[in-house]
Amino acid sequence: MSNNFVLPIGPIHPALDEPLHFRFQVEGETIKDVEILSGHAHRGMERIAMKNTIAQNVTLCERTCGLCSNTHSMTYCMVMEKAGDIVIPERAQYIRVVADELKRLASHAFAVAILSHLIGFDTVFLHAFQEREKLMDLIEAYSGNRMDMSINIVGGVKRDISDELAKEIDKTLEEFRPVWDNIGKIYETDASIICRTKGVGVISKETAIEYGIVGPPARGSGIAQDVRKQQPYAAYDRLNFNVITEDGCDVYARTWVRIREFIESINLTQQALREMPKGPINLGLVPKIPAGQAVARSEAPRGELFYYTRTNGTEYPTMLKWRVPSLVNIPSWVPALKGAQVADIPAIIASHDPCISCTER
Amino acid sequence: MYPDLAKEMSRIMGKECEVVEHRDNLWFELDDNSKIKDIAAFIASYPGRCMTISPTYDENKSMELVYHFDFYEGPIFCVQVKVPDKKMESITSILRSAHWPERELTETWEMTFENLGSIRWDRFLITQGVEKGVVYASLSETMNTNASDILWERIKAYRDEEAGGESNE
User: Fold this and answer.
1) Do B51 and A40 touch (CB under 8 A)?
2) Under an 8 A CB cutoff, do A308 and B66 touch?
3) What is the pLDDT at residue B135?
4) Topology (CATH level 3) of domain A44-328
5) pTM of structure
């Protein structure tokens, strides 16, 4: 009897929370090849965006994804601000950094927790999720919502951070440091985590460049690519932080990048809160965007997020196109999965922290 | 070090070329579509990547593409090209990072990328139930109430027929 067979997984599968279909060509327990098919929930958002007004699209873009919702609306506003040669008030730039980093913290905590769950380490999962709840409380205290903060508008932000709230955010984040240090220590030393993640799902630096992957997966393969440093936006050019890279190229390295970035994000948020100047937070009414075209990008929790627009001087854009980090990262799963064991599939996929909601925008 | 793009484009095109800085990024208008593979080879050799390819229209509603390239440092390099016949040579064989963007445009904008190759499923991003080129059909369009009306009219007609032409209402 042949040992080779095809193993179909998805689009609905308990290990994968979003719809994606795989056909694994396996030999025993070893994956020899894989085909990936998406498209089970494509929403045609780019078409809708062309029927909406420029102001309405802020709401639409924010709904591309739950975990990086704020980065979507911010980058959309950035591309429109570029098309209109608009400079937003300095305080708004700092508030955008705080909001973006809070969402990054929540997203990274989620990614690390989910990976722990998938490799059977539910103690870390519960620990990380419990701490994430406190972050969600901070997000809710600031914006009134847990997921879609809905603070960005073309020309700035619409909700200020009071001194009292700034102190509360600063204090809560300070309390996170020892907790996250502890989670880091567990990841660094626990034998069961190491044996499930080290040397698993390897994407070499050369392969990462070939596929053009972005975000923590790229940084986990030794590529120091971070839009916040490469092409700073908002107030990132005035803040000190390090680009975290690891050269393990495996599940462990990608997760470790997120754990280390967590501390960097705490530093960034606290810095931004400290150095935030007083002043207006937006330009008032929605500014008129002249005819033209522009591109903008930002560092979403999952990697580089890119927006392109072409405007015609009316309130409706001629074209709006956005490219999400997961769309770039998913093709690189093929080399990561080839040669791996069937049992490692969930860990390899979770280490990329994919978002199918983004991919099928 | 960020490449001297004006020099590289002039070399590839065989004539003096201008790369313009526009709103923090660099833009180049490609007037010879056959040179896209040479540009891709230069990007790959640097090494760089294809971030994505944006579809757009000019003032006369003629289709254009904007290729967005990145060198892991500095600004985005945008190459704008006119494609009135919606045909372009694929660069996936040179820059693998262009694979999904090209496939996506094939499905959503009915672009033809020559030598892109095929995949076993034909579709990869949009389900086969949606016609190519009209894809930007949103969920509200594909699941509109009209479809339900047609379904119920058929059922009603069937029941009427069963009841000997008498309405059940």
Assistant:
1) no
2) yes
3) 47
4) Cytochrome-c3 Hydrogenase; chain B (1.10.645)
5) 0.87
Minimum CA–CA partner of A87 in chain B: B23
CA-based angle A273:A62:B124, to the nearest 5? Answer: 130
Q: How far is CA A195 from CA A118, A192, A252, B109, in A?
A: 14, 5, 9, 46
Tens of pLDDT along A266-312?
Answer: 999 999 999 999 989 988 877 888 988 999 999 999 999 999 999 98
Q: For residue A199, what are its two tokens?
A: 């040397």
pLDDT tens-digit series, residues A237-274: 999 999 999 998 999 999 999 999 999 999 999 999 99
In this predicted structure, the answer to whether residue B137 has a pLDDT above a threshold of 90 is no
Report the sign of the C-alpha dihedral through residues A346, A348, A353, A357, in that order: negative
Q: Is A306 helix (H, G, I), strand (E, B) or coil?
A: strand
**C-alpha span between A73 and A64 (Å, rounded):** 9
DSSP-assigned states of every residue in A243-292: ----S--SHHHHHHHHHHHHHHHHHHHHHHHHHPPPS-SB-SSPPPPPSE
Chain A nearest-CA residue for B108: A44
Please indicate whether, in this complex, the C-beta atoms of B52 and A304 are within 8 angstroms of each other.
no
Q: Give the separation between CA A331 and CA A79, rounded to whole angstroms.
A: 27
From the list A38, A295, A304, the residue facing B125 with the nearest CB is A38
Residue A62: CB partners within 8 Å, gap ≥ 6? A69, A70, A72, A73, A148, A149, A150, A152
The SS3 assignment for B77 reads strand
- Averaged over A308-323, what is the pLDDT? 90
Of the candidates B68, B75, B124, the beta carbon closest to that of A39 is on B124
In which residue are the tokens 């470790």 written?
A: A256
CA angle B107, B110, B114 (to 5 degrees): 95
From A36, A44, A224, residue closest to B135, measured CB to CB:
A44
CA distance A57 to A315: 11
The predicted-structure confidence for A91-138, as pLDDT tens digits, reads as follows 999 999 999 999 999 999 988 898 888 888 888 888 888 888 888 888
A322 and A306 in contact (C-beta within 8 Å)? Answer: yes
Q: How many angstroms separate the CA atoms of A73 and B76, rounded?
A: 20
Report the C-alpha gap between A314 and A320 in whole angstroms: 14
| ipTM of the prediction greater than 0.95, yes or no | no
The DSSP secondary structure of A131-182, one letter per residue, reads: HHHHHHHHHHHHHS-SS----EETTEES----HHHHHHHHHHHHHHHHHHHH
Report the distance separating Cα B105 and Cα A199, nearest Å. Answer: 36
Smallest CA–CA distance, residue A290 to chain B, in Å, is: 13
Query: How would you classify the pairing of strands B63-70 and B49-57?
Result: antiparallel
Per DSSP, the three-state class of B80 is strand
pLDDT band at B103 (very low <50, low <70, confident <90, very high): confident
In whole angstroms, what is the distance from residue A94 CA to residue A273 CA?
A: 8
Task: List own/partner pairs for A140-143 with CB under 8 A and 24 or more apart.
Answer: A141/A165, A141/A168, A142/A99, A142/A102, A142/A169, A143/A99
